[in-house]
Specification:
By secondary structure, the chain is α+β, with helices and mostly antiparallel strands. The chain has one domain: Nuclear Transport Factor 2, Chain: A (Roll). Helices cover 33% and strands 29% of the residues. A 6-stranded mixed sheet has the order 2-1-6-5-4-3.
Length: 172
């Protein structure tokens, strides 16, 4: 990936979002040592990403559309795949899906395991397993990839979520 010249970066604006800069093929600084990020008080960006991921699951467990909407990247490039659903694209479609889920389901409690976070140049992806008991008592496991982008004003925002149900009992 090439770097941006000061002129190119200036055209992007002082508050350009990380994912916008990355999609344009330029990111003008070392993300981890960047003073804008360091002022947020984080030494390891994986800690901050993990906290953003916990916010997502707290919003889900609370069935809060307002909190869920605040976690997502507000862009048509955001996507979401709930287990068994088609790909949802764009902020509005994603938030509408959570409104439907929260209206139609009993509350869920997530037990997360096997979480791994990778952060590079303002983009992070987390892989993990969601373990939960459905309202009818059935155990359910979902393999998840959550993708976050760093926004200089709002911090880490979820830009992609893909959940696939794990079939229990398959040979390993």
């Amino acid at each position: 990936m090439r770097g941006c010249s000061p002129l190119e970066y200036g055209r992007k604006g002082a508050h350009a979002d990380t994912c916008d800069l990355l999609s344009a093929g330029c990111f003008p600084f070392d993300f981890v040592s960047n003073p804008v990020y360091m002022r947020r008080g984080m030494v390891d960006p994986r800690d901050d990403v993990s906290e953003a991921n916990r916010r997502y699951y707290r919003a889900f467990e609370a069935r809060s559309v307002v909190e869920m909407a605040d976690i997502w990247w507000r862009d048509d490039r955001a996507y979401c795949v709930h287990p068994g659903w088609p790909v949802l694209r764009g902020y509005k479609e994603i938030v509408n899906s959570y409104e439907m889920i929260f209206r139609s389901q009993e509350p869920l409690n997530f037990f997360l395991s096997e979480q791994d976070a990778i952060v590079e140049s303002g983009v992070a992806w987390l892989t993990l397993s969601e373990n939960l008991i459905t309202p009818n008592g059935t155990p359910l496991a979902v393999a998840v990839t959550n993708i976050f982008c760093f926004d200089r004003r709002r911090g880490w925002l979820l830009s992609g979520h893909h959940g696939s149900q794990i079939v229990i009992g398959l040979p390993t």
